[in-house]
Amino acid sequence: MAKPRIVVLPGDGVGRDVMPVGMQVLEALQERHGFDVDVQEVRCGAQYWQESGQEWEQGGLEACRDADAILLGAVGWPGATLPNGDIAGTGVVFGLRFGLDLYANIRPCRLYEGVPHKVSDRFTQVWAPENVDMVILRENTEGSYTPTKGFLDRGGIKEVAVDSRVITRKGALRIHERAFDVAEQRRAAREAAGVGRESKVTCVDKSNVRAGCRLFRACYDEVAEAHPQVTRDHAYVDAFTQWLVRNPEWFDVAVAPNMLGDIVTDLAAVLQGGMGMAASGNVGDRHAMFEPVHGSAPKHAGQDVVNPYAMVQCVGMMLDHVGRARGERRMLDAAATLESAMASCLRKRVFTYDLGGDLKTSEVGRRVAEAVRTIELQA
After folding, report:
1. Are residues 291 and 250 located together in one domain of the fold?
2. Would you state the pLDDT for residue 120?
């Protein structure tokens, strides 16, 4: 079997700062577990557009189509606006999501031991880490982010703006199927580890007032019938935001339409220590792309100060995905090694400024890579 092909897109801003950490950790994992991947870097994003007039290096999107997985840093840069008014670089993200049909945005939310979160005070921890351990899935290819929008211009004045939300049966069914699959995987992993916890999928919507959400919830109930071992749960999005912050231990897996999911996952990131700890996967039936949630953060770019743990987690998610897809045990083992190494570093307060530490991005990367090489794993 040919080696897995990984396309890396550093993109803009701090994406260029955290991607080297991801590559350093990936190299350490390959050394320890004896697997090889082909890595191709592709230039893209807003800064590349400023340099070249193009959002993609020639052949970049085609390379992504042929890859086993894609690793993205971030896109977006101040002042980089396309002639049509769109932000330069968004064509990369939306080109991948829609062009590769990456319909499931998967965002783990886990509070690691030793990591402070910021709900009540900047560095005060309210809950035990085991109380914050969930995955939120967001439908990624329809909803409010479909290109069904426009302006009414009269006399050079924009008088009306229209954004239409699109919810389809196909889109709703497949994101719910993915959510219940994730719940089943989590339940199996907990049973193997001897951890007793209810397996549950919460449908997050606004079906009391919106027709699209009523279809979304009806499709959820239909899929739930085929998964009797997983508890069925519903929440209106406004109530869910309160419960998410007040009682995160209630949730295992949650699933939401596109824009609602975009909002609640950023709120959930606060529970795990902030955006620097928030990773995500964009997954379809044939392709997958993994990216930190934090964006390009221009004011911190190039200073070697930002938190790279979200990128480190993305590497682990990527290896787990590719390992499952290819039946490659060594890659699955590598993902488990990285999880243990990262958790060990966090317990030892290997922190950048946002978590109350003073280490540089590169130093955190070096420490995690060293832990990958040396950590002793349980049999």
Report:
1. no
2. 52
Residue with tokens 């209630």: 250
Is residue 315 one of the residues assigned to a domain?
A: yes
Tell me, yes or no, whether 141 and 215 share the same domain.
yes
3-state secondary structure of 258: helix
Distance CA 190, CA 112 (A): 17
Residue 22 lies inside a defined structural domain of this protein: yes
Taking the model in full, what pTM does it have? Answer: 0.92
Which residues form the domain of 61?
1-110+276-379
Do 79 and 88 meet the contact criterion of CB atoms below 8 Å apart? Answer: no
The pLDDT-based confidence of 117 (bands split at 50, 70, 90) is: confident
Query: Model confidence over 124-156: pLDDT tens digits?
Result: 555 567 889 999 999 999 998 887 888 888 888
Strands (DSSP E) contained in the chain are 5-11, 38-41, 69-74, 104-110, 133-139, 149-154, 157-163, 200-205, 231-236, 253-256, 279-283, 288-292
Please state, in angstroms and as integers, the Cα–Cα distance from residue 213 to each residue in 101, 111, 167, 244, 305, following that order: 21, 30, 8, 20, 41
Amino acid at 295: G
Q: Which residue has the tokens 């290997």?
A: 350
* CATH number where 47 lies: 3.40.718.10
Q: Distance from CA of residue 63 to its chain's centroid? A: 21
The Cα–Cα gap between 379 and 375 comes to 12
Compute φ and ψ for 311, nearest 5 degrees.
-65, -40
Residues 330 and 263 in one domain: no
Residues 282 and 376 in one domain: yes
Shared-domain flag, residues 293 and 260: no
User: Quick one: how far is CA 108 from the chain centroid?
Assistant: 7
Q: Enumerate the β-bridge partners of residue 211.
A: none
Distance CA 256, CA 265 (A): 10
Kindly state the tokens that stand for 150.
């426009």
Q: Which helix (H) or strand (E) holds 288?
A: strand 288-292
Rounded-to-integer distance, Cα 121 and Cα 123, Å: 6
Per-residue pLDDT tens digits for 163-180: 889 999 999 999 999 999
Residue 117 belongs to some domain of the structure: no
Specify the pLDDT at position 123. Answer: 47
Q: Which band of pLDDT confidence, cut at 50, 70 and 90, is reported for residue 119?
A: low
In this structure, are 378 and 283 located in the same domain?
Answer: yes
Task: Report yes or no on 122 lying in a domain.
Answer: no
Number of neighbouring beta carbons within 10 Å of residue 231: 14
95 and 162 in a common domain: no
